[in-house]
Write a structure and sequence with these properties.
Radius of gyration: 22 Å
Number of strands: 14
Strand content: 15-25%
Length: 503
């Protein structure tokens, strides 16, 4: 190897960075795209980093955003590395050709974690496989929890989303030097990362920054402002401080994280407790993102790839034995699910008739999955005139009870089944041919906008990813989703708007 091959160096608007050659691709880690969001910048919108002289080493992941650890029950399935330090607004780049002129497609990845956990350093998110296949891959750290999504009277909302927007601006201004094409950027994310992706493509301030988008197990949405305020107020009560950004900035960081974890312990998608979320703020998020995308003409020309896993709810219910507890609660759990999903008795009765073999927990889980994911994503696909492609991941984990759970598809999309952390969810012996199929589809979509199956239309084509050759079905979920179309079946705040299918 030449010296250049040993240490690839690229210039950015803020200074040069030196990466590493790994697995035949150039990797640059921990590049700042904004200044550290602490001190006078805490709870404020991101600002550009201070330029540096010389060449900055980019060989290691940068600091991760402050976050509480996963509970013991979830930690056995999900890894969440912590890198200490304040300079947490950083990103990583994997590229096969670090230099201007290559003009390769770019995929920008926003991690999941309920906007409270996760980072770009999760081993499953290794971008080497995308770079190997001709895509410049960028993964982003952003503020989480109270630091990124606290709602205060004395600070702008959605700081974490603003971080992500700043990262997209960095990509526009810098990625050509790494071999990427700023006009061929695909924004992708899973769970909270997908929700963020939906909000960003709907945001007027992000128009022109993204050509394609991938939404994995997360639909565009905005959280109720009062729900987020309750989260902040409960934390303030425990901390014995005012519910203001100024007061929270004076609290010890570790105490703040512990308090956030205690207050948010019931905030799973099924339980629906207090949680952080993206809110309509009249600025970056001027209206609900799903409404903006389906009714407001947002994101013109942006092509979409979106879908879910067949048994999303099993990751929410299996850890800690919640699945069995929900089954034991029976009618009480079903009543709570109806309240959570704003649906009437007719919907639950319909699910029981369609799936008489299903237990209470499975019925509750599928109701919540449809409410949060399948219905809004169907609605989004129906409303768009631009090409949309829909998938369902159906391969069941080799670990007991997980089925085709939330986040299981990640190791297949990234083709990182060889990473030990991927086996935390998949088990030993996951099929490589499934990873080949999914990863190839994502690479194709980022490259030319066509993942390899028929675009969404009135026949509702859906690619099923399972063991064996990929299969396209038509109208697979229509029977369940049709149960929600009746005005009599939908009650409460979502009636007639958020929950009803279109088309």
């Amino acid at each position: 190897m030449t010296a250049g091959q040993e240490s690839p160096t690229v210039g950015t608007p803020y200074g040069a960075v030196r990466g590493r050659w790994e697995h035949g691709v150039a990797v640059f880690r921990g590049i700042p795209y904004a200044a550290p969001p602490f001190g006078p910048r805490r709870f404020r919108p991101p600002v550009p980093p201070t330029p540096w002289g010389g060449v900055r080493d980019a060989g290691a992941f940068g600091p991760t955003a402050p976050k509480p650890p996963y509970s013991e029950a979830f930690a056995q399935y999900l890894s969440d590395p912590v890198v200490p330090g304040d300079d947490c607004l950083n990103l990583n780049v994997w590229t096969p050709e670090p230099g201007p002129g290559a003009r390769l497609p770019v995929l920008v990845w926003l991690h999941g974690g309920a906007l409270t956990r996760g980072s770009s350093a999760v081993p499953v998110y290794d971008g080497r496989t995308f770079a190997r296949d001709g895509v410049v891959f960028v993964s982003v750290n952003y503020r989480l929890g109270i630091e990124g999504y606290g709602l205060f009277p004395d600070a702008p909302a959605n700081a974490g989303l603003r971080d992500q927007l700043a990262a997209l601006h960095w990509v526009r201004d810098s990625i050509a030097a790494f071999g990427g094409d700023p006009d061929r950027v695909t924004l992708a994310g899973q769970s909270a990362g997908a929700i963020s992706t939906g909000a960003l493509i709907a945001a007027p301030q992000a128009q022109g920054l993204v050509r394609r988008a991938v939404l994995q197990s997360g639909a565009p949405e905005s959280s109720d402002r009062d729900k987020v305020r309750r989260m902040v107020r409960r934390m303030a009560t425990r901390l014995k401080v005012p519910a203001t950004a100024e007061a929270f900035a004076g609290v010890d960081r570790e105490l703040l994280l512990r308090t956030q974890a205690e207050v948010g312990r019931l905030s799973s998608p099924v339980l629906g407790g207090p949680a952080f979320g993206i809110v309509v703020d009249g600025d970056l998020v001027p209206r609900d993102p799903l409404e903006a995308l389906t009714e407001g003409g947002a994101a013109p020309g942006v092509e979409l790839l979106m879908g879910w896993t067949r048994d999303e709810y099993r990751l929410w219910l299996v850890p800690g034995g919640l699945l069995e507890r929900v089954d034991r609660l029976g009618p009480v759990a079903l009543a709570a699910a109806r309240a959570r999903c704003h649906c009437g008795h007719e919907v639950v009765r319909g699910y029981r008739e369609l799936h008489p073999e299903a237990g209470t927990a499975e019925t509750v889980g599928q109701l919540v999955t449809d409410h949060l994911l399948r219905i809004p994503l169907h609605r989004l696909a129906d409303a768009r005139t631009e090409p949309s492609y829909v998938y369902e991941f159906a391969w069941p984990s080799l670990l007991p009870g997980l089925g085709s759970c939330h986040a299981l598809e990640l190791g297949f999309v990234f083709d990182t089944g060889d990473v030990p952390d991927a086996r935390r969810l998949a088990g030993e012996g996951a099929p490589q041919e499934l990873a080949d199929a999914m990863h190839t589809a994502w690479v194709r979509f980022a490259t030319d906008g066509e993942p390899g199956w028929r675009r969404w239309d009135a026949s509702h084509p859906m690619r099923i990813f399972d063991a064996g050759p990929p299969l396209t079905t038509y109208g697979l979920r229509d029977r369940e989703l049709a149960l929600w179309t009746s005005d009599a079946a939908v009650t409460g705040p979502g009636a007639g708007r958020r929950t009803r299918l279109r088309g």
